[in-house]
Fold:
Amino acid sequence: MDHPAPGAHLESLVSALSDALLEVVLAPAGLGVGVSDVAMYDPDDVSGLSPGTIALGVGIRGPADLAAALYELGRAGVAALCVKLGGGLDERSRQAAKAAGVAVLAVPRGASWLHLAVLMRSLLFVRTKPGEDPAGTDGNSLFAIADTATDLIGGPVTIEDESLRVLAFSVTQGEIDVGRRETILGRRVPERWVSLLREQDILHRVYSSRDPIYFEIDGMRPRVACAIRAGDDLLGSMWAVVSGPVGDAQLRQFREAAAVAALHLLRDQAMSRATRRAHATALIALLFGRGGEVEAAERFGLAGKRLRVLAIEPADRNGRERSVERHWSALELFLASYRVAGAVAGSGRMLYAVVAVDEDDTASLRRTRELATNYASMGGRKATVRIGIGGAAGVHDAERSRREAEDSLRVLTHDGHRGLVAAIDDVRPVAVLHRVLDSLGPDDLDCLPLRRLEQHDTEHQTAYLETLSTLLIARGDITVAAERLHIHANTVRYRLRKLQEMFGLDLDGVDEWLGLSLVLAARSYRRRTAG
Structure:
């Protein structure tokens, strides 16, 4: 039986998911409106959209679709519409949302609609099992998956573990048979039905296939069944009672529902507090070269895979450690919604994520940058983070990818115009320069010719140091330097001769030129970081 969760309104839902999956674009009626259900929006059939529903705009492809949908949803009393926006909300859709009183919530482009529906239903409803108190139950997400899968496949669903013990079932019963009734009442598949499934090789077919299996046997209504797997590990199975053969699209959706169930089963099995601490300890050890690579690879499903490390820093400096804890859970949820294998752990004021990537470095960079950008841009200013992405690596080289992620993050910190995400593949020259500058001590920067230059400029109100710096930045191009200094090119030539005659600078040599550039860059870098 379903019970509305305490505080079942739009604000509580947005608060729970805004860091990872939802961003409020417009809320004409505010966020205090009540929420009653979650449903996929079908332009051809809005009969299932009752007042207070959150509609998932699966079929909306552009501004015209969006504006039309908002007017229609407003007439149905829908509370909010979730959409995957390519950019901002166009003016026509904005006016339609205001007129309809429907909130518009943005969802990342790569997120799974099915997973979002499951998460929302998990938050909106508390499921009471026989003999249990609603306040004391857990596993609501599995019941939400069963409910969502029922909508997709068109028949009641059960989720069972590898021993055919019932873990969750959909609230919709529909046309059922004695097999489903006895299974739910007894909380496991009756032995006589198990024997029948084995005799007809159905269990073997279900457990050995990656795709859903449709079957019919005497004494039972038709079924669709799909194994629930994590890699090669069998976690359980999902079963639906149907009226007859189903289409390929429904089978694909049922398989996706099983994949989502696998994520939640793994999470239920693994994410106790003690296990989470153990995960964090193992991940930090992997990233900082403290050993345990083999154990960490097995623990996080990274054995034999390539990976990239993300270094995540909350942009708000006040209360950063609390922000790390908040983003920790949000990022786990976000990666799960994208069906990305990996792990997340916090360390002090920094959060690290390891994600499994493709063998192809170019493809892995594109995918990882997309993930990082979508996460960094979600949740508005309060959830803003900066993310550095390390290079592709094997599990035994994760420490190097972690250092590169931190280097990329530091480039972002000192060069804010680069945005919220930087990958080492794109900023390596600047990252290398920062490393070199960090290695220079005060004595390295105490260059006698430069000291004499500064003294002469101070005493005689000249601009030789500024001219030298500008020439170095302009790579010796006198015309460019003159434009930047707002003086004639002949004046630059004159000052250049004086630099060589008065201060003994050999600006014709490559080494001298590079060394002076480095020292002046280091001085500028130190001034910026000190501020």
